[in-house]
Amino acid sequence: MIDNNTSTDLEFHRQFLLDLFCQLAYKEGDFVLSSGQRSSYYINGKQVTLHPQGALAIGRLLLSQLPKDTQAVAGLTLGADPIVTAVSVVSALENQPIPALIIRKEAKGHGTMAYIEGPSLPLGAKVVVLEDVVTTGQSALKAVQRLKDAGYQVEQVIALVDRQQGGAKLYEAAGLGFQALFTIAELQAHFKG
Q: Please, which of 42, 171, 191, 192 could form a disulfide with 22 given CB 3.0 to 4.6 Å?
């Protein structure tokens, strides 16, 4: 979306982010994931998304990946909260402000009883869903459905890391485009290298 970031700058941010994921977020051991699956590794994306330079790199990289007609970014709380915020803040710094929306897992228990927090957008607004780590893809798909139920148009999901365990196929079956900054294979190769 932003043309004034040179590919060299974006590559610098991408490499920095890959290093940060390997240093702070990637762990090997025996873990149970939110999907209920067991795994020999775990990625705690919040170690990177809540890191000041990590958030800046995420904001710059994801902003560059957004379609030009994007009117908002959104994601399911809690994992996507710092990601959508980083993209929104960087977009404001680039003088192309894109609002952030946060999708609750359960409707707000008081006031408006809303599932979606953030600025009101016109019906049909084009929203891109952002996610930290995709395994089965269910979290982002829940966010997509909530946004569509609210009258927004969602055609794409962008993640930081794709664990390559079915999420991409789920999104394809739902008619959504999908891309990730890193695959688990790339992250593990860098971690071991």
A: 191
